[in-house]
Amino acid sequence: MKKIAIIGAACGLGAPDTACQDGPEVLRSLDFLSWLDENNILLHWDAVIHPAPVASPLQAVHGVCAQLAERVAATYAAGEFPLVVGGDHSCAIGTWSGMARALHEKGALGLLWIDAHMDSHTFTTTPSGALHGMPLACLLGYGERALTEIALPSPKLTPANVCLIGTRSFEASEAKLLAKLGVRIYGMEEIRKRGFAEVFREALEIITRNTAGFGISLDLDALDPAEEPGVGSPAPGGLFRSEVSDALHTLRRNAKFQAMEIVEYNPYRDRNFATAKAVSELVAAILSV
Ligand SMILES: [Mn+2]
Q1: Is 121 labeled as catalytic in the residue annotation?
Q2: 17 labelled catalytic
Q3: Which of 46, 80, 88, 219 is catalytic?
Q4: Ligand 1 centroid, distance to 288 Cα (angstroms)
Q5: Which residues surround ligand 1, an ion (CB under 5 A)?
Q6: How many CA atoms lie within 13 A of 13 on its CB side?
Q7: Catalytic residue status for 132
Q8: How far is the CA of 232 from the centre of ligand 1 (A)?
Q9: 219 alpha carbon – ligand 1 mean position (Å)
Q10: For the chain, what are the domain ranges?
Q11: What predicted TM-score, i.e. pTM, was given to this entire model?
């Protein structure tokens, strides 16, 4: 059975609205994950990492991600399963830089990016300047040096070992970068045509083919905001919680599944804690016995 260490990443300065920075503390204080413990899933809150009071969003994101990478790598080295809870999605730079370093003697890291967006901008293409729109580009080696070089020399990910699922809101410039790199993207149209289960299975095959282990970065905005409104950047026409949770269920005994991240929980937009409940349900899907 996996023993899980939850690491909160309270970053909000990567987004125009900083509300997601309160996500981890809300989930921790309301004990949303404690019922997993009661169901014999071994977990504990390891830490919540907060940004230092610094001058710019870039410095804040760099600070959180550098600490997060250390924490994730140490957790993994200690034999625990790192579960990072965001925070805006800029924390992905820290989570997966840490995992890439933890795994790099064994081999490459595979990553499934479940998200309504591509998060593959750089400072030269971004319309908003927001860093939570850039983490995947950074991990692939494109972007600000301070962010691409955390924990290991860049790049942390090889394009052939990455898949995006749930994509439906993006700019042409980031789509162009991913197309140039040959990253496989499963948009909503393909998912509705083929079914989530089939697409998920195929993506898993791609990201495990040439890797030592893989992780999942789950942006809650991949889910449909009609069901889960408590996210940073809602985008209509998304995934249903049940189809995602059914697919995640298939990973429970997958030995190559090494880490998970759930991000962009905005407690102020949530209604009746629907999105907070989604977080615990999705975690349970992966980890229950
Ligand atoms: Mn995202």
Answers
A1: no
A2: no
A3: 219
A4: 26
A5: 89, 115, 117, 119, 219
A6: 16
A7: yes
A8: 9
A9: 5
A10: 3-287
A11: 0.97
Alpha-carbon span 169 to 238, nearest angstrom: 10
Q: Phi then psi for 33, rounded to 5 degrees?
A: -105, 0
Cβ(265)–Cβ(277) under 8 Å?
Answer: no
Confirm or reject CATH 3.40.800.10 for domain 3-287, answering yes or no: yes
Catalytic site residue from 50, 62, 121, 132: 132
Structure tokens at 41: 């899933």
pLDDT by 10s per residue, the chain, length 289:
678 999 999 999 999 999 999 999 999 988 777 777 676 678 888 999 999 988 799 999 999 999 999 999 999 999 999 999 999 999 999 999 999 999 999 999 999 999 999 999 999 999 999 999 999 999 999 999 999 999 999 999 999 999 999 999 999 999 999 999 999 999 999 999 999 999 999 999 999 999 999 999 999 999 999 999 999 999 999 999 999 999 999 998 899 999 999 999 999 999 999 999 999 899 888 876 4
Of 80, 88, 174, 221, catalytic: 221
Joined tokens for residue 171: 């700019």
Residue 249 bears catalytic tag: no
| Rounded alpha-carbon distances, angstroms, from residue 66 to 53, 62, 84, 120, 182 | 15, 6, 14, 20, 28
Amino acid at residue number 100: A
